[in-house]
Amino acid sequence: MANALEVEEGASVVQRRRLYLDEDGVIALSTSWLPGELAEAAPELIVTGPLPKMTFGLIDDRTGRRAVKRRDSVSIAELPEDVAPLLELAPGTPVLSMANHYWDQNGQITKYARDYMGPDRALAAEYDLQ
To answer: 0.90 cut: is pTM over it?
Structure first.
């Protein structure tokens, strides 16, 4: 995580994990990591449960750091041992995965996320082209 967040090895980070479900089962497991200093301004980040605003709204309100850039990397990845049971699959099972990096207006990483899609799920994105 240190490389992904561009922080020193051993620096504190915040981890948030969400499991998305529908009537057919697991859609995706999403895990986000944020630089630890963000929790000083927004302690809600370290509490389980929904945030009063989405992650970026909370960070912007409390710190003025606004997410302005995102990079997505989609790949087939083997499920890590800690993720596999949550998707009800065996560790090492290849699944569709997406990593996201987010930067603020100062070029600093505000969030890194990794999503693992559930079995037989598609990854879709929709963008306004105006």
So the answer is: no
Give CB contacts under 8 A, 24+ apart, made by 85-88: 86/19, 86/26, 86/29, 87/26, 87/29, 87/116, 87/118, 87/119, 88/25, 88/26, 88/119
d(CA 35, CA 110): 7
Residue with tokens 């041992």: 81
Measure the CA–CA gap between 80 and 28, rounded to whole angstroms: 14
Cα(17)–Cα(1) distance, integer angstroms: 15
**Whether 50 contacts 57, CB under 8 Å:** no
For range 53-62, the mean pLDDT:
89
